[in-house]
Amino acid sequence: MENRGARQAGPRKGVVTKLFGVILIFLGVLDSMVSWRGGFAVSEIYALMIVAGFALYAVGAIRGGGRQ
User: Fold this and answer.
1) 10 pLDDT band (50/70/90 cuts)?
2) What is the pTM of this model?
3) Given this model, what pLDDT does residue 41 score?
4) Which of 18, 30, 37, 63 has the greatest CB tally within 10 Å of its CB?
5) 8 and 68 in contact (C-beta within 8 Å)?
6) What b/e sequence results for 35-57 when a residue is b if at least 16 CB atoms lie within 10 Å of its CB, and e otherwise?
7) CB 24: neighbour CB atoms within 10 A?
8) Which helix (H) or strand (E) holds 59?
9) Cα 8 to chain centroid, rounded
10) Separation of alpha carbons 27 and 21, rounded Å
């Protein structure tokens, strides 16, 4: 039992990177939806934010190494 607790006590790698990636995805999607709804042309920077968010999420998942 003690071995299980010691294994979970360590820092979880990739969590902050995945969280930042999700935040970028949400911001990119919400900004593009607001500009589309407002009748403005959707900028390329929103697509770049979404792609960068997915890339950061993937890097965080790789760094996590299969930990759940």
Assistant:
1) low
2) 0.76
3) 85
4) 18
5) no
6) eeeeeeeeeeebeebbeebeebb
7) 20
8) helix 44-64
9) 22
10) 10
